[in-house]
């Protein structure tokens, strides 16, 4: 009987120890950063909600920082400040790789795990990238434009040069358009981080007629779509195609109302949610070498790229996205 009691007590002690150990795994003292530019945009507010939700689940502290507008230097300053606090990990969207890569490398050298999301710095020492396959997403959009234009027409593309994700999207569109010689890219417009410039430029381009008439406007960032569609609508023009990016509410409303043909949907909530979980795993089970190039290691414990998925949204499925957006805001 004593032996049985002793065994039972041992099992109970083991269970308590195991439970306590699991409970002690996380702490509010563990701080994880999400850093990006354009934090005022709905896209980044959605990402922040995913990051914060994962932090609540894991019982750790989440900090979301970065400039409200497109400002790589301000993002660099936020990264520098975050590194100084020696956080448990950093998830960062890279506005400009040439600006941010040295500081990303400095963070890893200091023993801080860094994972990129949404926009990568492939040449840096970050562990890996979580986000969209932007090259394929650009190709997806390109095929839709070709279909709707009947394989011919002039297009204008609004973008942010130097930002890795928009550069890849642009290449995807160019790859597809290169197969159709009657599709001409009339201009690639640098919005310079200010979407109001997209509105003004669209109004200017709508005045072009004849062989120079612009048949389609393509937006490679999450905010330009509404500006461009507003300019087209104000000009009382009904024969131009507008291709947007992301599923902001105003973009979905534009598709529903017919001012935007389609958009490419990404998953910023998923990127940030998965990103914090991944950083937590690295923090609690760190590799022997944090600054190793795991992309060249066939036995690496980490992937090179986690694709969170994309889809094309148009009138056929926009109601589904509107309903999901409403549910997500509850």
Output the keywords:
330 residues, alpha/beta, Rossmann fold, 2 domains, 47% helix, disordered N terminus
Sum this structure up briefly.
With 330 residues, the protein is α/β, with parallel strands linked by helices. Helix content is 47%, strand content 17%.
Overview of the molecule:
With 330 residues, the protein is of the alpha/beta class. The chain folds into two domains: 9-132 and 268-292, 3-Layer(aba) Sandwich (Rossmann fold), CATH 3.40.50; 134-265 and 315-328, Response regulator (Rossmann fold, 3-Layer(aba) Sandwich). Helices cover 47% and strands 17% of the residues. The chain is built from eleven helices and twelve strands. Strands 2-1-3-4-5-11 form a six-stranded parallel sheet, sandwiched between helices. A six-stranded mixed sheet has the order 7-6-8-9-10-12, with helices on both faces. α4 links the parallel β3 (89-92) and β4 (114-117). α2 (42-58) runs parallel beside α10, α5 (134-149) runs parallel beside α6 (164-177) and α9 runs antiparallel to α11 (318-328). The radius of gyration is 23 Å and the shape is elongated. The termini are far apart.
Please write out the topology.
Layout: H1 2-23, E1 31-35, H2 42-58, E2 61-65, H3 72-84, E3 89-92, H4 97-109, E4 114-117, E5 129-131, H5 134-149, E6 153-159, H6 164-177, E7 183-190, H7 196-206, E8 216-219, H8 224-234, E9 241-245, H9 249-257, E10 262-265, H10 268-284, E11 305-307, E12 311-313, H11 318-328
Parallel strand pairs: 1-2, 1-3, 3-4, 4-5, 5-11, 6-7, 6-8, 8-9, 9-10
Antiparallel strand pairs: 10-12
Helix pairs in contact: 2-10, 3-4, 5-6, 7-8, 9-11
């Amino acid at each position: 009987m004593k032996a049985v009691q002793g065994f039972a007590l041992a099992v109970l002690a083991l269970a308590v120890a195991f439970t306590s150990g699991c409970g002690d795994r996380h702490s509010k003292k563990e701080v994880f950063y999400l850093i990006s530019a354009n934090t005022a945009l709905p896209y980044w507010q959605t990402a922040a909600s995913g990051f914060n939700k994962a932090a609540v689940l894991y019982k750790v502290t989440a900090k979301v920082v970065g400039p409200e507008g497109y400002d790589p230097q301000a993002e660099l300053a936020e990264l520098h400040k975050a590194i100084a606090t020696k956080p448990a990990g950093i998830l960062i969207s890279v506005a400009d790789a040439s600006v941010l890569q040295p500081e990303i490398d400095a963070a890893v050298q200091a023993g801080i795990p860094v994972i990129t999301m949404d926009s990568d710095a492939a040449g840096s020492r970050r562990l890996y990238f979580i986000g969209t396959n932007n090259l394929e997403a650009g190709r997806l959009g390109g095929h839709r434009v070709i279909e709707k234009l009947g394989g011919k027409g002039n297009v204008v593309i609004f973008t942010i040069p130097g930002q890795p994700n928009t550069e890849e999207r642009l290449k995807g569109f160019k790859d597809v358009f290169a197969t159709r010689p009657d599709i001409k890219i009339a201009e690639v417009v640098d919005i310079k981080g200010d979407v109001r410039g997209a509105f003004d430029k669209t109004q200017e381009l709508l005045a072009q007629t004849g062989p120079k008439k612009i048949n389609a406007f393509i937006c490679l960032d999450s905010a330009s779509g509404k500006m461009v569609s507003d300019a087209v609508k104000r000009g009382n023009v009904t024969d131009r195609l507008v291709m947007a990016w992301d599923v902001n509410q105003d973009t979905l409303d534009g598709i529903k109302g017919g001012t935007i043909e389609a958009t490419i949907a990404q998953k910023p909530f998923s990127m940030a949610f998965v990103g914090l979980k991944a950083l937590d795993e690295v923090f609690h089970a760190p590799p022997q070498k944090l600054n190793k190039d795991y992309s060249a290691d066939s036995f690496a414990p980490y992937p090179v790229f986690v694709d969170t998925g994309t889809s094309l949204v148009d009138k056929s499925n926009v109601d589904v996205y509107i309903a999901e957006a409403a549910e997500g805001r509850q």
